[in-house]
Amino acid sequence: MGKHRYGVILDAGSSGSRVYIYRWLNAAAARAHGDAQTLASLPEIKTKKKWNKKVHPGISTFATQPERVGPDHLRDLVDFAREHVPEGEAENTPIFLLATAGMRLLLADQSAALLDNVCAYFRQETKFQLPDCGLHVQVIPGETEGLYGWIAANYLLGGFDEPEKHDHGKGHHTYGFLDMGGASAQIAFAPNATEAEKHAEDLKLLRLRRVGGEAVEYRVFVTTWLGFGANEARRRYVEGLLEAYPGSQELPDPCLPVGLKVNQTGHELLPGSSELAGTKPYLVGTGAFPECLRRTYPLLEKERACVDAPCLLNGQHTPAIDFDVNHFVGVSEYWHTTHEVFAMAHKDKAYDFLTYQKQVTDFCSRDWRDIVKDVGSQKWGKKVDEKTVEEVCFKASWLINMLHDGIGVPRIGLEPVKDAAANKTKAMLGNAADRGFLDPFQAVDKIDGTEVSWTLGKMVLFASSQMPAADHALAVGFGSNIAGVKTPADFQYAGGKYEALPTDLDDSNAGGGDDWHDRIFNGSYSRRVPGILIFMVILVLAMYLLCGRERRQSAFYKLRRRKAPGFLGSKFFGGSASPHYEHVLEAADPADDFELDDVEDLRLASGSSGGGSDPHHTGRSSGWATPIVRGMSPDILRSSPSRSKMYFDTPAGSAGGSAEKGLGITAFERGGSGAMMRAESRERLAPREQTGRRSRAGSPTRRSPMAGLVVKKSLD
Question: TM spans, by residue (predicted)?
C-alpha cells in the first residue's frame, strides 16, 4: 500500500450520474509526518477538478432493463475512475454508488434489481474494494444526503478542525447547511445548547475520528422537504394558475419575463407553434416580480397543522433556529439562482436580500427578446443559456420565500441583524472575504477551490473511519441520538461493519498489500468462503455415495488397520470390512450379575488348517479368534505360535476386567473353509460371589447363572 488512500463515489441523481475521486494520506504517513495540529484534525481530503465526470441520463431510466445499467451507463464512469486511481491501489480503494431523488421514485423491486446489477458489475469488472453492497450501493434518504452536505460544508469552512477561529458565540462553531434540488430541499444544523437539550431525540448522533485516533461527536438536526425542490414547486405553481383561470387558454404568469410564452411544462412556444393554436392552456409572461412573490408564498404550506411544535413549513417539526449563532451556507439551486445571472457570472459575492430582490425585479420586468440578445452575447457567461434565464424569475421568487418566510433567515438590508463583528477575527475575514460566512445565509459553490458536495461529506466520514482508534474510541458513523446509548441499533457505520484495519500501521504491510490469508476475508473474497466450504462438503458427500458399499468397507478396514481414529470405523461410514459381530445382551436381574472370567493370550497358528509358520501372515489374519480362558488345555497353549498383538488382546499378566486393556478376546484365523467360531465355555461364566467382586459397568449379564455370552456373526 502506498502513502495515499483513494475513494470513488458515484452520485446517481435523477438527470445523470457523476463520479468523484478523492485522496488522503493513510494513517501511517499522516501520523509519521504530521504535527500536533494534524493529529488533532480530520484527514485532509484532496480532489482535483479533472477527477470528476458526469454521464446522462440517470440510472433510474434503466428500471425496465436493469441488466444494461453496467455496460450502457456505468462503464464510462468506471473506466474514468480506473484511469485516475493508481493501478496498484484499486484493491484498497472503496467504491460507492449512492442514489438520490430519481431512484426514490421507483418501485421497490425495480430499485432492488438495479442496485443488484450495479453491485454485480462493480465486482465483475473492477478490483475496487466492495465488502458490503448493502452499504456501498444504496438509495440514500434525503436526511442522509443533508447530513453528508453538512459534513462537507463544515469540513471546508474549518468548523471541525479550528473551532476557536469559528466561534459564533454561545460555544457554537459549526455552520448550518441548506440544499435544494429539483424534487426536494434539505436543512441540517446543530441547534444551540438550549434547543439541543429540548429536542435531543430529534437529533442525529454523528461521530468522526481525528488522525490521532480521538473521536469527536456532534448532534445535528436534519430534515428534508419532499416536493419543495425548484421543479416540484413550479409544478404545483402551474396547477395553481390553472385553478385561478379556469377555462382560459392564456394564463398570465408574473414569474416569466414580459412576452415569453411557454407550455405547462416550461418549454418555450415559438410563433406559429401548433400548441398556440390548440385548446390546451399555456402561460404568458407579465414580468411582475412582486406579484410572483405573492403567488409563490402559498406553496410553503405554512398553514398546515404543526403536530410537533415548532415547525417551519409544511407542518414539519424543526427546532428553533438561533441565527445569532446558526450561520447557513446554501448549495445547488441556492447558488445557481443567486449567482449565475445576478452575481456577474459566478463571482463570489455575499448575498443580501435588498440587493438581490432589486436585481431580480429589474431583470424579470424586461422584454424577453432583449434578454435573448444578452444571452447570445454571453453577458452572463457562456454557461448561461436561454433555459436558465427563462426559469430564473420563478426560482428566485421561490428561493426568497423559502429562505425568509419559510426558514426564517433575516432579510439583510431590511431587517436588523445582531452585529457579529466581535466574532469576526482577521483570519476569518481573510479566509471568507466577500463571502459573508458569518452572515445568516450565504450561497456557495466552491470553498478554496473544492466543490461543496455531499459526496465530499461521505468521503470525509469514511476516511476518518480509517484512522486507527485511540483507546476506548468508538466507531465512526451516525445514528439516532439516544441518551446513554453510545452506539444505537440503527447506527450506520462509515464503510460497512466496523473492524480495526491493520493495513495502515502494520509493519508487515509496509511494502504494500495484505497477506494472502487476510485477503481471503477482505472484499469480495469474504463472500466466497462460505460457498467454497459448502461446495467441498457436497463434493465429499458425492464421492462417498459413488464409491459403493464394498469400496467404502475396504477403505475403512485399511484405515482401521493403520490405527485411524475410532470414528472412521463406525457404522456412520458403513462399518468394517471384516465380519461384524454384535454382543447380544439379554436383560438380567440385578441380583444375577455375571462377568467374563480373566483370559490369557493364545498364540494361534495361521492357515486354514490351523498350522503354519508365518508369523507375519498370522498377525494380519482377519476374523475373530477363539476366546481362551483359564483351564484350557496346556497343549493347546503350547501349540500356538507367536503372533502380533491385536487391538482387543489383553496384555499378559493383566486383569481381564479392565476396560482400558481390551475385552479379553483374541483374534481367530478364518480359514478357506469359512469363518470358524468357538463359543466361550458357559462353565467359565460363573458368578464372582466368592470373591466379593461385582460386575463392572457394561459387563454381560444373564437371567440365570447358566446363561452364557452369545456371540453372533453378522452377515451382510
Answer: 529-547
